[in-house]
Structure formats: C-alpha cells, structure tokens
Amino acid sequence: MQRLSRKLKAENKTIGFVPTMGFLHDGHISLVKKSKLKADITIVSIFVNPTQFAPTEDFEKYPRDAKRDKKLLSSNGVDYLFMPDVSEIYKLNYQTFVQVEKITGILEGEFRPLHFKGVATVVSILFNCVLPDYSFFGQKDAQQVAVIRQMTRDLKFDTDIIVCPIIRESDGLAMSSRNIYLSDQERIDALVLSKSLKLAEKLIGEGERHTRVIISKMTSEINLVASSKIDYVNIVDADNFSIVDKLIFGGKYYILIACRIGKTRLIDNVIVKVS
Ligand code: PAF
Questions:
Q1: What is the pTM assigned to this prediction?
Q2: Which of 25, 28, 115, 210 is catalytic?
Q3: Is the domain of 87 the same as that of 215?
Q4: Cα(39) to centroid(ligand 1), Å
Q5: 171 inside domain
Q6: CB atoms within 10 A of CB 82
Q7: Three-class SS of residue 17?
Q8: Residue 219 and residue 233 in contact, taking contact as beta carbons nearer than 8 Å
Q9: Domain range spanning residue 110?
Q10: Are residues 139 and 82 located together in one domain of the fold?
Q11: DSSP alpha helix (H) spans, the chain
Q12: Residue numbers in the chain where pLDDT is lower than 50
C-alpha cells in the first residue's frame, strides 16, 4: 500500500482516503463522493479493527459483506481498496498503541474505555500505509473525529481531516452499519434518537440555554420508548469537545446521544449554532 501511495505521489497525484469497517451504506458513499471531488485518487480501506472492540462487544458478529462492498466501491469510482488482514496490521508481537488523553475520557470513552485507543492506533497505522493528503470521516462519530483531529495535530500527520455531514434515512434514522441488527419494532423505536435531537434544536430555537433542561427533556422523551436504555445524552462545545452547562450566543455545540435500542447500541448527534 505504501509503495503504491508513494508512486502516486511521485506522479503528483493527490490521495483522498476513506477509512471504513465495511458493510458500506450511503454515509460511506457520501465520503467517497467528497473524496473524488477533492483528490485525484480515492482509496478506501475496509478493516474491522479488533482493538477498538471490547471483549463484550460485537467484533465477531460485526456485519461483513466484502463482495457487495467491492461492487459498491467500483460502481462509485473508487480507485483502490485497501483490505488488509488483521495479522498484517497487528503482526505477531505487536506492542504499540496511540492514546489520546482528555477528550477520550468522557462520553463514548466512559462507556467504551479502550475504544479510542484502538481507533487512534489503527487510524495512525492506516495513515502511515495510505499516506493520504485528505482523510474523510463522518460527523456521526463526532467524538471520534475530535480524537482523530487531536491525534493528527499532536503527531503531525500530514493529512487534512475533512468531516462530512450525517446521512439519514428518509425518516431521520442516522445511517449506520449496525442498523442491520434492529428488528422491525426496534427500527421504529430507534427514531426516538433523531426525534429527541429535533426536540433539543426546537428548545434552543425557542431560547432555552440551560443544557440541564435540554438534556432532561430529551431524556424523558427517549425513556418513553420501552426498548431504549440511554448511555448518555450530553452537550459539548464543538471546538474543544468539553461538556457545557450553558449555551452562549455565537457558540457552536454538539448535542450527542448514545442509546441502546434492545441490544443494539446507536449513537447520533446534531451540531447547533446559537445565534
Ligand atoms: O469509523 C469507523 O468506521 C472506524 O472507527 C475507523 C475510523 C475506520 C477506524 O477503524
């Protein structure tokens, strides 16, 4: 992969990179489209990264369909697919991990303590393999983006991080490879995530500035759905990912939810600008 990327660079081609764990949906394809607009060559990786899953999580059963993914990527004009084996990324006696501090200790980090260490490590390895000029990530994983931005800045990776908006189903459900786990009833129940984000936007639009009030109303709405179990609902400053008590004029914030619907853990968020 590195040899190919070096050759492309020697030909003065810019490389756009879309890292994924496969089982692709329109959210991933929107990243591919952005990359194709921005870079000469688009490279997608598919790698279900074992180090970002806890032993209790769904690494083994994470949905995989390489044949369908390959078709989708070639019909969308992707130039190269990088699909390494676990044993190629984590060779025997592998010992090195990347740990971003602080922002990994809250929200997702509280519920999935080793998750971001796995993400930062694999993304570093992938950056070193692909040598991308531009790297594309979805806003759905807003905290992941904050961690990768921080890591890219701290470790001086020579790539621009480009964040693309969440792609939703027509009824509002944020696209996710894990939506496949939802039963028909849970698929309906899962709409409560996007509905509660809409409620938060409405409250802010009406002038509510106390995050405690917004979070409490969102929580009540989500709790009405019997199959739901909230991990967190919170509001952070979009620039530094710190949790805030009060929204201020001109501020930009992420409203974030992680919630189980039945056995499936879903996340969603919206970005709001207070004006
Ligand atoms: O967002 C994902 O799909 C993964 O966390 C990533 C960035 C590909 C790293 O494994």
A1: 0.97
A2: 28
A3: no
A4: 20
A5: no
A6: 17
A7: strand
A8: yes
A9: 2-164
A10: yes
A11: 2-10, 26-38, 66-75, 86-89, 108-111, 115-130, 142-154, 184-189, 191-205, 211-223
A12: none
Name the residue with tokens 């600008």. Answer: 273
Could you say which of 135, 164, 193 is where a domain stops?
164
The residues, ordered by sequence, that sit 6+ positions from 156 with a Cβ below 8 Å of its Cβ are: none
User: What pLDDT sits at residue 252?
Assistant: 98
> What single-letter DSSP state applies at residue 18?
E
CATH of the domain at 248: 3.30.1300.10
Cβ contact 272:199 at 8 Å: no
pLDDT on residue 222: 98
Q: For residue 187, what are its two tokens?
A: 């698929």
- The per-residue pLDDT for 125 is 98
Q: How far, in Å, is the centroid of ligand 1 from the Cα of 244?
A: 27
Is 28 considered catalytic here? Answer: yes
- What is the pLDDT at residue 72? 98
For residue 48, the SS3 value is coil
Are 157 and 228 members of one domain? Answer: no
Q: 119 C-alpha vs ligand 1 centroid, how far in Å?
A: 6
SS3 63: coil
Query: Which residue minimizes the CA distance to atom 6 of ligand 1?
Result: 20
pLDDT score of 221: 98
Strand, helix or coil for residue 134: strand
